[in-house]
Amino acid sequence: MALVDSIHGVRHRLGISLVKAGSNGKTAVLEDPDSDLRHAHLSPDDRWIALLARIDGGSSRIYLAPFRASLVPKHEWIALTDGSAWESSPRWSPDGKLVYYVSTRDGYHCIWAQRLDASNKPSGAAFGVYHFHSARRAPAILPFGDTDLFVGRNQLLFSLSELTGNIWSTKVPE
Questions:
Q1: 96-109 burial: b if 16+ Cβ within 10 Å, else e
Q2: pLDDT at position 143, please?
Q3: Which long-range contacts (CB under 8 A, 24 or more apart) does 53-61 make?
Q4: How far apart are CA 159 and CA 12, in angstroms?
Q5: Cα separation of 49 and 92, whole Å?
Q6: What is the pLDDT of residues 114-170, one digit of tens each?
């Protein structure tokens, strides 16, 4: 099975659908008439979905939603972020106790994480995992919605760009 972005509802917003191998079509599992949903990622135990909601007006918010093979109403979703910054690419830790994501909450594109309690609600404040407070090497040059983040047992893999330049001088013969 796979979770995919697809057009949903009368407002034709991006939502999350389930596609099962060997079956025709897809089943809508998450939709919101006020935002586009993207970057769905199943928890290690296949019971929860981490997702990104792009809110009209220029911000985004990360949610967790229970996973079912049917539409899950928004009142069952758990907000991990407050929508005050741009966030992207939510990914579960291998043990399901953290959600990693890229955020501009400190003014730069940095990797943050949120601890979860036993019921998958936020436990404490989010914390910075890796900061990119430099113009030379950062994910900031890439389109923010396309930032890749992959989480392994002892590593994070992510898209990173490097910006360099030189100043050249020469003497012009007369």
A1: eebbbbbbbbeebb
A2: 57
A3: 54/14, 54/145, 55/83, 59/83, 59/84, 59/85, 59/86, 60/85, 60/86, 60/87, 60/88, 61/35, 61/87
A4: 30
A5: 9
A6: 999 999 999 999 999 888 777 666 665 555 556 677 788 888 777 777 777 888 888
